[in-house]
Every structure is written in C-alpha cells, then in structure tokens.
Amino acid sequence: MKVLEAQEITKIFPGVVALDAVDISFNRGEIHCIVGENGAGKSTLIKCLTGVYEPEQGKIQINGISVSKNRKMFDRVAYVPQEIDLFEHMTVAENLFIPFNRAGIHGVINQKELRQKAIPILERFNIDVEPETAVKDIPVSQRQLLQIARATAFEGYDVLMLDEPTTSLTTTDSEKLFNIVKQLKDEGKAIIFISHKLDEVFEIGDRITVFCNGKKVADASINDVDIPWVVTQMTGRSLNEKEVFFSQKVEDEVLLKVEHLTGDGFEDISFELKKGEILGFAGLVGAGRSELMQGVFGFRNVYSGKITYKGKKWKIGDTNYSVNHGMFYLTEERRSQGILANLSVRENASINALRQVRNGMMISRKKERTLAKEVVASYGIKTPSLEKEIKFLSGGNQQKVIIGRSMCCNPNILIFDEPTKGIDIGAKVEIYFLMKCLAEQGIGIILISSEMDEVMKCSNRIICLYKGRVAGTLDNNENKEEILGAILGLNVADREEK
Amino acid sequence: MNDVKTVGVKKKTMKDIMGIISKNSTVIIGCVLVLMMIVATAFSPYFLTLFNIQSLLRDIAFIGMVAVAQSLLLLIGELDLSVGKIATLSGVFGGLLMTAVGWNPFVSLVIGLISGIIFGLINGLLVTRLRLNSMVTTIGMQAVYSGITLVITKGKAITNIPDSIYFLGKGNIANIPVPFIIAVIVAICIVFFVRKTKTGRYIYAIGNSREAAKIMGIKVDSIRVLLFGIVGFISALAGILYVARLGSAQASVGNNWPMNSIAACVIGGVLLTGGVGSPVGALIGASIICLISNVIVLFGVNVYWQEAVSGFVVVIAIALPSILSILREKKKIRIKGE
Predict the structure, then answer these.
(1) Residues 68 to 97 of A: which have CB under 8 A from any B CB?
(2) Which ranges constitute the DSSP H helices of A344-472?
(3) Is residue A368 situated within a structural domain?
(4) Is residue A30 part of a domain?
C-alpha cells in the first residue's frame, strides 16, 4: 500500500539540476533503501519529501492527499537527519518531547511527568540513560538512538526517514538500531533508509533505489540483486573487493615519534610513524583516537609525553607550529570544524595557501582563482562555480576541497580523521587511492577510521585503541577477528586477568 | 545593424547590473542611502546646502570610523562596547598632556592614540586569555575607562586646547571636512586590510568557525587581540578628532557610539554571528544613521520626539534586508500555489 508517492519531481538549483523528473513511492511495512554517490540527489529528494524544499515541478502525495492542497500532510513524515541536532544542554526527556504541546504537555513542565513518559520510550529504544541526564553527557551512539526515538515518539506518523543513521555508530550499536527499525517496519510504518554502507542496506532493506546525477537509475527488490550490481548502477564501474590501498614504499626513516603521550582523553600512548607509511588507528567510538590525534596536532590539551619529528623535538599544543611544519589534521567534524560555511569554494580552497597567491602584501585574485581552479579540477569537485558558498556543496565535495587545500602546502604528515564519513563508495575509493599516492610520495599518513574494511584495506600497520590506551599493534595481514578483539578490549582484559 | 548590437549589449549590462544589485547586500544598502538623499533633497531645501552637507559629513566621520572598526570585531563574532569610553579617555588623556602638562599638541595626540591601542589590547587580552565573552567584558571595561576619565577630569571639561590642532576637527580641505577625509582614509586602509591581506582573509575564516581556523593553523587568539588593538586605535583617533572639533575634552563624548556603530554594521549587512559582511557596509550603515538624524532635524520634528523617531527609523533600516527576503519567500509560495 502506497503511503508516500512522488511523481516527476524536478528541483533545480542555479547551475545544477538536482532532481530530474523523479518518480518514487514508498509502501507500508517496507524498508526502502536509497543509495547513490555524493551529489546524486538523495538529500535533495528527502528535503522535497519533507517539505523543506519546494520542487519546481511534480506532485507529492501522502496517504493519497496532495501536499500542495494540505501542507499538514508533511507531519506524517518523521525525519531523522544525518547530523545530530539535539539540544545539548537540555535533558534527554526534554529533548524527547519537544515541542511540548505536540506531546500533550501544556503549561508548566513537570519533570516527574516527563520522566514517567520518557522511561518506556527509552526502554523501547534500548537507550540506557537516565531521563534527567543532559544530552551533552551521553555518548554519541545514544544520541543517535535518541534522535530516532524523538522522531517516532508520536503516534501520528506513517513514514520514517533515516538519513545515514549509522555514520557515528559502531557495529554493535548499529545492530541495536536495525532491530528497532525492523520492529517499526512490522508495525506497518514505511521506512526510508539512506546509507552509504551497502552491507547495511543488504542486511536490512526490502527494496533499493539507486540515484545517479539527480536521476533515478534503477530500482529493484533487494533479493534480486547483489552489491556489485548496485555499485555498477551507482558509478558505472565495477568494484574490486580485493583491491588494497596500503603504501608500497615504506621507508625506514621515522618521521614522527610519540612517546608516553597523556592528555585529555588518552593515556600513555607511544607510536612511530615512518616516512611513506599509512598508519591506521582502529577503535570504538570514544576510544580516544580523535582525541589523541588532536593532542599530537596541538588542538587539544596534552599533559605529559614527548613528540619528536625527524629526530627533533616537536612543539606540543600549537596548531600554527604544526601546520607550518607540514602537519595537517583533516577533521571528522567537517561541517563545524572543517569548512568555512559562508565563504566561497575559492576562499575555502586557498585559505591554507594564501602565501602562494600573493603579490607583495596583497592577495592576487587572479592567482587565487588559478589555484582554486586547480584544486577543483584535480580533485574532481562538483560545484556550479568557484564563487558558490561551500555550504551548498555535498559532503563529499566539501571533503575534497578540504583535502585539496591541505595538499597545496606540501604536507609531510597528514592526519585523516574518518575521511570517508558520509561519503559514497565511488568517492571513497578515490580517497583511498589518493592516500596511497600521497604516502608513496613520502608523506606519513595517519588514518583514523571506524570502518574495519577501510582500516584493513589502507593501512600498513594498525594500532588499536581501547579506552584511551593502546590495545595492540597489528600488521595489515592479520585477520579481522584479531583486530576486532583488540578494539573491543578483549586482550586488555586478558592482560588484567593475568 | 549597429543599433541592434548596442541594444543587445545594453540589455545584457542592465541584466548584469540587476544581478549584481540583487546579490550584493552592500550595493542594495548603498542604493537605499542614495534614495534617502534624493528624498531629503526633494523635501527639504536646506538639505543640499554646503553648511548642512559639511555638518552631516562631520557626523558621519565619527560614527563611520567607529563603525568600520566595530565591523572588524563583528566579523570574528566579537564586539566592543567600550569604544565610546576608549575615545573619551584617550581624548582626555591627550588633551591633558597638551594643556596641563604643556607638551607639543601633536606629540600629545600620538600618545593619546597609543593609549587607545593599549586600552584595546587590554580588552583583547582579557577576552582571549581569560576566555571571556567580549560583550560582557567590554561592558565592564567601559565602566572602568569611564571611571578613570571621571577621576582625571573630576567631571569638568578640559579647555584651552591649543588651536593648532583645531583644523583636524573643524577644518575643511576643498570644502570637505578634515575628519571625514581621515575617516575615508581609515576606511580604505581597513577595507584593503580585510580584502587583500592574508590576515584579512583569516578574519573571515575565524568568523565562520573559530575551531576550523585553529585547525588550519591560524593564530586565532593573536588575530583577535590584534583586532581589539586596532579598534582601540581607531576609537582613540575618533575621540581625539572630537576633542579638536569641540576645542575641549569632555567626559560625555561618545556615549552613543557603541550602539550606533553596531547598528550601522547591522544595517550595512554585517552579521552579528560573524564571518559575513564588509567594512564598506558598516560605513554606509553609519551614513544612513547620521542621515536619519540630520533629516529629522531638517524636517522639523519636535525636539522631544527626535530620538524616538530616529530610533524607530533605524529599526526599520535594520529590518529592511530581512523584510525583503520575507517578501521574496512569500512571492515564491504564491507562485507555487497558482
């Protein structure tokens, strides 16, 4: 039974046709997965289906009623955005029921009443926190579940949209989430699931629709197709699963040596990074990988320890020093710490390399444009123009701008923190290949990733962190179970028992 | 043939101009300023007289200078509410050196300016080193500067300012008031700084995301302190020019500068959250504010009502960009509905 139906939807942005006459419909009791590369039009579709954007053409019907007649129908669509957008300083229960009048709470907010209403919902979604806890104090995985709980806390929805719900979740947390989603499906809700992780799509989905360049290119029942088929549809090329991307030219020279580093979120960590090496850091969310690297880079406090770079002492705690000495940190939080949202692609691309585009004191607009054009061309960035604000680009294209601008400065050490978070398979492979090329040019690369496959495919060595400590250093030819064991802290437990 | 061609070219340029106007908020606000001047000329015979224009430009010079300075801080998401009191204290300080101490007036001026830089740097260091909110910090500091002024002057104006410096405040070059010329020079320098230098670009980076800027290796705190210093310098410059204009240093000067400078920036399209806008906009915004109070006097609004009326018009001016975008959205929805 069709609950949400869109016919011939077209959405045009200046210079780009984001959606081109798309027909799509969603049925009750079905998990409908939508996949596609960055900029394929998935997010635009969602924004049209939730009433955020007005499509230029086309009809949207919810429960058979056209939304142009009754915009209230959009309330039947519950939407969980990709980025967590909870109110951090309010409690879990308050977040759950905002807006209060929709939850049937009027006038004075009674915390006891909130608590009573919240407990069954939290139990149902396996969120193991007290309703009075402030959201900023609960782990990321719990926040993601809380977002879904919030969207579905009300009876009056028929469609649940999940936009990349597992990007900040570990495998175990993802499993919990999937169980909940399956329950909701059995209750007869239509579920729209957007993900870059194709194994998840095949684990959970019933139908799959593939987007490419704003067009719907294929749809099928998930039982009839397999992952290579989907990848071919998405990218037009086939995927080689066995392909590996670690550096072939690791030299003996030690580039960076970290000794007994202790800081905010990590303890007593020592490792060496060799020239031309890709060093992977695996671990659960919250294991201290990002914290450690931010400490090394100078963005986060370090209490004690020593870092040497090519045998010389490294100044800790100064990002300017790090960047000037060729160390770059490509952050996981692209939106808040990576891009300069209101500035143009040109300004974002050149910001690290302004020294190179100057005439005397002045920035030369001409040289700057040339540099930005080069970045856009060499990293295949899709943008309507150099002057477009970067916030209008898709996540993958933003990431490419950030990589491109760091590369302008001839880096010696690059720290990639979840470089492919929210990025599609085609672009992922490009980024892996890029890392390999850079490493083979003699750059030392540190790769932080929550995806096991990614770490194993790309790293020459893998260091596993568990609760802020090193739980094991492994070669890339070691089997998956060994690494998994290390990041889950199993061998740490062994050691403690002994 | 030729005619057809030129028409084609003209059409295109008209379209281009319209495109530039609708995209660039500085141009829009510039058009509003021109429009207001036309209206003022049409309705008051006194507006376009040499005397009135000169006094208008002299007003614009002071608010404009401070607004341009304030826009630097707004661009990085900070603000300084002590600009007026820095101006007063620097003016009083310079004035005292010229009169009571009897130093060379121009040396005293320079020392007054240096004191302004120091006051600005103190603000900046407090905000960055102690990680304070700049609004609250400068509310406190403006009381400190104002208090010191009172201690020095005992509430009395410092008179007997040597008339060798009067031309800086009262003089004209080719009928253009000297303070206005100085303000324009300051504005050009600041615009050059913001648009063309590396540090200028970093200002926008910090305004967009302080964390991202830090990750890029930008010395965020140094730039913040530097900007507070520049703001202190420009405020002191405005304060000292005001002393030269009045011929005396008074404790009550600059009371409305902080609010007017911020309003001018907002009218000129500078976002309070940082990262968007330009000092040019701030200067135009300041011109609009001064024009409003000038016109209200010329139109003969009741003296007691003047402040309320000009405040109301300022609110309308601030609301203009957002009213335009509301109307644009409404129009879109209406077209969709049909």
Answers:
(1) 68
(2) 345-350, 365-378, 395-407, 425-440, 452-458
(3) yes
(4) yes
Q: What is the CATH number of domain B33-272+282-328?
A: 1.10.3470
Instruction: Classify residue A185: in a domain, yes or no.
Output: yes
Nearest chain A residue to B329 by CA distance is A54
Contact yes or no for B211 and A352 at CB 8 A = no
Q: Kindly indicate whether the ipTM for this predicted assembly is greater than 0.90, answering yes or no.
A: no
The whole-angstrom separation of Cα A45 and Cα A462 is 39
Each residue's pLDDT, cut to its tens digit, for chain B (338 residues) gives: 344 334 444 455 666 665 555 566 788 888 889 998 999 898 888 888 889 999 999 999 999 999 999 999 999 999 999 999 999 999 999 998 888 888 888 899 999 999 999 999 999 999 999 999 999 999 999 999 999 999 988 888 888 888 888 888 888 899 899 999 999 999 999 999 999 999 999 999 999 999 999 999 899 999 999 999 999 999 999 999 999 998 888 888 888 899 999 999 998 888 888 888 899 999 999 999 999 888 888 888 888 888 888 888 888 888 877 787 788 777 766 665 54
The rounded distance, in Å, linking the Cα atoms of A302 and A213 is 45
Domain that holds residue A437: 254-497
- By Cβ distance, the residue of B216, B333, B337 closest to A352 is B216
Task: Find chain A residues with C-beta within 8 A of B276's C-beta.
Answer: 342
Q: Total domain count for chain A?
A: 2
Interface contact flag, A331 B275, Cβ < 8 Å = no
In this structure, the answer to whether residues A229 and A288 fall within a common structural domain is no
Q: What is the pTM of this model?
A: 0.77
- Cβ-nearest to A320 among B208, B209, B219: B219
Residue A406 C-alpha, separation from nearest chain B C-alpha, in angstroms? 9
CA angle B143, B144, B145 (to 5 degrees): 95
Contact at CB, A338 and B332, closer than 8 angstroms: no
Per the DSSP assignment, residues forming a β-bridge with A269 are A261
Report CB contact under 8 Å: B333, A54: yes
Whether residue B198 and residue A339 make contact (CB cut-off 8 A), yes or no, is: no
In a domain, A279, yes or no: yes
Tell whether B199 is within 8 A of chain A (Cβ): no
Within this chain, do residues A339 and A432 fall inside the same structural domain, yes or no?
yes
Cα separations in angstroms, A141 against A135, A146, A201, A285, A345: 11, 9, 19, 8, 32
